[in-house]
Write a structure and sequence with these properties.
Uridine Diphospho-n-acetylenolpyruvylglucosamine Reductase, domain 2, alpha+beta, homodimer, five-stranded antiparallel beta sheet, Uridine Diphospho-n-acetylenolpyruvylglucosamine Reductase, domain 3, Vanillyl-alcohol Oxidase, Chain A, domain 3, 455 residues, seven-stranded antiparallel beta sheet, 36% helix, 18 strands, 3 domains, globular
């Protein structure tokens, strides 16, 4: 351990190395519950690519595991420390290096906060779509590690679709440049995409070239109240089948609505079974909302309320963004699931989740990126109650099993981390797992990069 | 060889195995010039996944190379046979297995023709965007192997962005399922994207889940004549910088215009230095075209002619699609390049290409997916003239060198194949090449899948 600190110090400025156990403890875990976290041997906050290379060379020399880390807003424990590891926090590499309005790209360091980038490009008439709920605090590097989604994915896709090229420090400290800064490019295997969503297990992203889009018009939303989640899901299917392109299409169930009201007194309708939120950032959002409102009415909505102002729209979005935080206040603990099913199966998924909650006598609030079929069932429970905790874990697993049965995936956007690694094999099967491991071995033969995550 | 045929025959219907040398010769090469092609030992046209698995198991047992093949419309020699190989043509696996309008996906076998799929989904109000010039004959499997682009990429992106999941027969005959049929999913490394653009060197795609979009309105186009390619490129940059979202933005130079007129008497303006084509499939294309027309005028367009009908628009597109064929008729041989640069460097790329043509005394026609910065310089030369052939090859290489110098890539959408494999290392560098090879070894340890391509 002393050796490690000494060797690290040789290539780092003093302020970049933390070995105080109390300070290190703050870096030991992300926001996932129920995921083991160890005690790091050192926390490093590099400011340059060379410093990252020094850390990886040292780690390789001493065979010490390295856990790359962003803002620790992750929900699957992928950034949790393991005993004796180096936590490599990239938050201090936070420069926006370039915004190019003709090429519609940004070049950034990994520690740039999502919202900081979004605002910087907006000032130049551009748009960086990926918007996880934690966008005010999470980093682009973390978003890349997790392949994060967000509210706008239904129209604009996920982080992966915006990563054109990367600079990556490999396990042995060498620097790899992948991808491009051009709109297209097919020279060799797409290693860029392999790093996206790899949860720091293949290399350390130190620079990213991101694609931007022209800023769309501001979005306008509506809220529709439904007498059942099923009816709301049927409306979602019809909206998508009829070719609408909403910039947001979200469902909140009654449990979630009550939780948000309790937290923030937002006046959401608590008597309804499912609230559907839709938004359009098209040239004529009023007309688009009217059309979608009619679909909602056709499928049984009891009330359809289009926002009249952008401010009203923004408030609805705030309510949606608060959902997880609000549900966390319901009981002493929560487990947030992230199952994504084909959108035609959304009703079955939400209905099945309700049945699982009933069976176990648990409160499970559901909010969902409905247009993507991506549900976030939040299991609320009392962590001091052993039996309830056991039932919570059981329900969490049953929700994933249901997702797989419906042709879905155990994780739409939160990643595998520690939380779901036992489930990965069930989704991928033995051949898939073997190839995943081969890829890992090709990039990190010593297995020092974020070991114990994913697999 | 007899062993091979016998072993193959044991798991294939008679009509699926071809060993007649004359018939096999027809399967020995794609549409790339100047790429060596060998004589296959057998050509197999499987109809089922099991038959593909049988072929791969046999090939593994005998250590025989396998060259996966679509419609052989490729432009880099990636589908060319090597001596003694099995050509594995997937064209007979041509069923559309499913089109789901709610989930907006299609599930297809690899031999489905791009245009067949495009028309089938259009009948259901959906849209499969990738549209390489060969779309009437090329296959989806080939498109996936090459990560093909097309005319609509400037708005809708390339093939890679539409491949959600794959079934792949591995080198040893095992079946791997990757990806998903959901809108989102981050379970494990993104192996799906690794196969896209891998030119048949990692596995044999036998089924694909493709994302579809709602069909947009029909597009309307304009043509703008410019006194110089530079002025046209400046207009392109301004169009994109000002946030327009054309569904097509193409440049044809004078050489190309003349060639197309000569082939098809289309009445294109031969006196102009560069013709810019722009199209919009927006709700109000007339207004969008008017705005873009003004940008063109601002940057020196001598004439701006908006199409008045969809039929007129379609004719302009036909002219553009005919460009390569037309340039092929200029001299006895052509070499088609595919350099993609950041769009801000498009003018430098086209100007530099003209300088290279002048230096070598060659005719080089340029058409370009201008909005993507993706140029297709077509070197026209007399293949019987040894010196001209040598200069043609030299100019081809200088064009790639120029592309790299300008921050671009040696291939935007045609792939590496045999044609550009010497150049791949120059683009990727030694660290990149080493990792590319490690990935190859992880999937194909015996090196039997399309050997001699890419690397």
């Amino acid at each position: 351990m002393d050796d490690l600190a000494e060797l690290l110090r040789a290539g780092l400025p003093d302020e970049a190395l933390i070995t105080d156990p109390d300070v290190m403890a703050a870096y030991s875990r992300d926001m996932a519950g129920f995921c083991a976290a160890g005690a790091p041997a050192a926390v490093v906050l590099p400011r340059t690519v060379e410093q990252v290379q020094h850390v990886m060379r040292t780690a390789t020399a001493l065979r010490v595991p390295v856990v790359p880390q962003g803002a620790r807003t992750g929900l699957s424990g992928a950034a949790n420390a393991t005993d004796g590891c180096i936590v490599l926090s990239l938050v201090a590499m936070d420069r926006i290096l370039e915004i190019n309005t003709v090429d519609r790209i940004a070049v950034v360091e990994p520690g740039v906060i999502n919202a900081v980038l979004s605002r910087a490009v907006a000032e130049q008439g551009l748009f960086y779509p990926p918007d996880p709920s934690s966008w005010e605090t999470c980093t682009i590097g973390g978003n890349i590690g997790t392949a994060s989604g967000g509210l706008c994915c239904v129209k604009y896709g996920v982080t992966a679709e915006y990563v054109l090229g990367l600079d990556v420090v490999l396990a042995d400290g060498r620097l790899l440049t992948t991808g491009r800064r051009t709109a297209k490019g097919v020279a060799g295997y797409d290693l860029t995409r392999l790093f996206v969503g790899s949860e720091g297990s293949l290399g350390v992203v130190v620079r990213a070239v991101l694609a931007l889009r022209p800023a769309p018009p501001q979005q306008l939303s509506l809220a529709a109240e439904f007498p059942s989640a099923d009816a709301a899901c049927e409306a979602v299917c019809a909206i998508m089948e009829r070719g609408h392109a909403p910039s947001l299409l979200e469902i909140m169930d009654r449990t979630t609505l009550r939780a948000v009201n309790a937290l923030a007194r937002m006046g959401l309708p608590e008597s309804t079974e499912a609230l559907l939120l839709a938004a359009f950032d098209t040239p004529d959002p009023v007309a688009d909302l009217a059309a979608v409102g009619e679909v909602c009415a056709e499928f049984g909505a009891t009330q359809v309320v289009p926002s009249e102002t952008f401010a009203e729209s923004e408030l609805l979005l705030q309510a949606r963004r608060l959902s997880l935080t609000a549900l966390e206040a319901v009981k002493s603990a929560t487990m947030i699931d992230d199952v994504c099913v084909p959108r035609s199966k959304l009703g079955a998924m939400i209905g099945g989740t309700a049945a699982i909650a009933a069976k176990h006598g648990l409160t499970i609030g559901v909010c969902a990126h409905a247009g993507d079929g991506n549900t976030h069932p939040v299991v609320c429970f009392d962590s001091a109650d052993e039996d309830e905790s056991r039932r919570a874990r059981a329900s969490f697993d049953e929700i994933m099993a249901l997702g797989l049965e419906l042709g879905g995936t155990i994780t739409g956007e939160h990643g595998v981390g520690v939380l779901k690694k036992d489930w990965l094999a069930r989704e991928l099967g033995p051949v898939g797992m073997e190839l995943q491991r081969s890829v890992k071995a090709a990039f990190d033969p010593l297995g020092i990069l974020n070991p114990g995550k994913l697999f």
